[in-house]
Design a protein that fits this description.
The protein is mainly β. It has one domain. Helices cover 10% and strands 50% of the residues. The strands form five sheets. A ten-stranded antiparallel beta barrel has the order 1-7-8-9-10-12-13-18-19-20. Strands 3-5-6 form a three-stranded antiparallel beta sheet, with no helix packed on it. The N and C termini lie far apart (55 Å).
Length: 361
Amino acid sequence: MNNQFTKRSGILMISLFLFSLVSFSQFSNIDFLRSAPADGVKYIQAYVSPWVNAFGAGLNGGWYNTAKPHKLLGFDITTGISVGIVPTSAATFDVSKIGLSSSLTGTGSASTVAGPKTSGTLMTYKVNNVTLASFNAPKGTDWKYIPVPTAQIGIGLPFGTELKVRFIPKINIKDGNVSLWGVGLVHSIMQYMPGNKLLPFDVSLFAGYTKLQGNVPLSLDPDPEVSQAYTAPYSATTSFDNQLLKISVQALNISAIASLNLPVITFYGGLGYCKSKTLMDLSGNFPTPVLITPVSSAPFAQYNNSGVKKGSDFPNMDIENFSGLRANIGFRIKLSVITIHADYTRAQYNVLTAGLGISFR
């Protein structure tokens, strides 16, 4: 298994937000794609789900640091980082329980991408009882904290409403790219209460949606220890340079939020519903071994034209990451127009958030 998928996937998730100094050595191989397409996809889903879940949870963070909307044409510019935390229960999975076919076999527990760095269980891909490929399940990274940097603008609208916008244009990162956009609304409930201007707290409704799209370059080549017999238009050296994993992460946050406004410091919190979803699919050419059954000799594995799988041969991956209640609590310090905030979110995947901004009411 190769390290390019390892490094570039880390670069996509982290340096796509200019965290270029941080890299991870995840996805140390993708040999499981040498098996039947449906099995390869099921393994990808089981392996990457914890990071994808934590990433989606992070996208739902950092939307607000007060329940008081801006006055008309007031605005803020805020940057921050939300760290999605992978629970210990998501460190491993049972290979026999992810729905693999009888062609790809393995037993016992395997690491997810967030799991321990121990050698994975031996996986064997067979057709008609002939072994076409065998490999160890990939190791984990032992890394459970997924940072999601964000930058957004809030603008005051009429009727006690504030519009929030997130946007990152497409950024090319080595051989991949990433883009992000999001929109949110805050609407004051306090404005309907008599004497609300005399009270030191605010209550609002919030809804926010974020979508990230990216392309991660992959590199799966034919096994050099197995016979190869490619003919035009395929070549073992040039036909597998166009492999991509396409990722789309969507996150939704609907909450009731409240804040207690004191001089300099504001305490805020929210209670609501969150959901995230990830769609992934493959594109390009992928080499898989096929069974050759000569009349006068024993069957054997070979890489040839009939074993080339297109991205469309692999099922799409639809990961319903998680949905359910979320509750958070935090504080904001405002010094003139400068704001500093931090909060903690309790959900299926917990989130820590901190940020800095400028705010003009």
